[in-house]
C-alpha cells in the first residue's frame, strides 16, 4: 500500500470550503472534522444552514457538499 503525503492541510481545506460558499470565517461554526482516507469530512453550520463538506486532502478540490436548513 502506497503512503501518500497530504498536500492540503485541514486549515487550507476549511478556507477552500468557505471561499466556495462565499462565507467569512466569522459566519461559520465548525463542529467537527476528520481525515477519511484521502479526503477531509467537515461538519459546520451558519445561523441558518448545516453543512457537511468533502475536500480532497491531495488536491484541495471540493468533492461534495450537503446542506440542510438548521
CATH topology: Nuclear Transport Factor 2, Chain: A
Cα separation of the termini: 41 Å
Number of strands: 4
As a percent range, the share of helical residues equals 10-25%
Which regions have little confidence, pLDDT < 50, spanning 5+ residues? none
Which secondary-structure class do the elements indicate?
alpha+beta
Order of helices and strands: HEEEE
- What's the multimeric state? single chain
Shape: globular
How many distinct helices? Answer: 1
Q: How many domains comprise the coordinates?
A: 1
The CATH architecture classification is: Roll
Strand order of the largest sheet: 1-2-3-4
**CATH class assignment:** Alpha Beta
> If you compute it from the alpha carbons, what radius of gyration comes out, rounded to the nearest whole angstrom?
12 Å
Could you characterize the architecture of this molecule?
By secondary structure, the protein is α+β, with helices and mostly antiparallel strands. It has one domain (10-69): Nuclear Transport Factor 2, Chain: A, CATH 3.10.450. The protein has one helix and four strands, in the order αββββ. The longest helix has 12 residues, at 10-21. The radius of gyration is 12 Å and the shape is globular. The mean pLDDT is 93.
